[in-house]
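Need ROK family protein's 3D structure for a figure. Predict it.
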Amino acid sequence: MRNIVLGVDIGGSHITAAIINLKNRTLVENTWRRDRIDANGTASEILNGWANTLQQCMAAYNIKPTKIKIAIPGPMDYKAGICLIKDQDKFRSLYGLNIKHLLAKEINFEADKISFLNDAACFLKGELYSGSLSGFDKAIGLTLGTGLGTSHMARGKTRDSDLWKMPFLTGIAEDYISTRWFVKRFYELSNRQITDVKDLIDNHSKSPYFNIIFREFSYNLAKFIYKFIKKKMPLAAVIGGNIALAEDYFMEETRKQLAEMMGYSFPVKKSTLGEKATLLGASAST
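Structure prediction for ROK family protein:
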């Protein structure tokens, strides 16, 4: 069946996959898989982890997908399937490898039926496709997690905005809008180590630095969105990624700070689809 596709979202700490029925824009029940991946592992460990998830996902459905569409952060040679990530604290062991051919071999699937796509662009496409941005035709998307993903709508297509490395404050944008900023900033203030934003919320919410960190993050995020808006002139923005799960601690303050910078209230929406947005966006991409 041409409408049956395996959609995949690869992030810095996880892989998520599901069989997608493109005809009715839905995930096939009981095929959803989400597994943690050590992005600092060896190439073999990472590829084996990905392959295991994909194989279990496909085994849960009796129809073989016609294609596998994989959303993954850049830099990548997306057409050839060559990983070019080397300076982002993830996937260093994959640098220069043709992960399309290696993964195809691991799962015994035709390499020419596997496509790699930018994860941020897929996320925005999914939200425009059937999520929180349905009805908008000009928007920007941000995925906040291990890294910073940015995307925009241009001439009817979603594209990677590649703003993670944009000069920002005293470094680049990803230095201030990512999990590593929370880890670094909390250590600077408290001299205590955390693993991620979930750890901060679950185990350090009583810290005197907890609210300070989220206020700083809200300002940084609002300032970045303001610069993003000036570049692309969108009508709305959508935010997703693991950090977006902590929206209660920063979203309203971000909107408030952004409104002060803009001089008016700009629509900043949280993803309604979550990880499904990227899977749907990847699967629907040509």
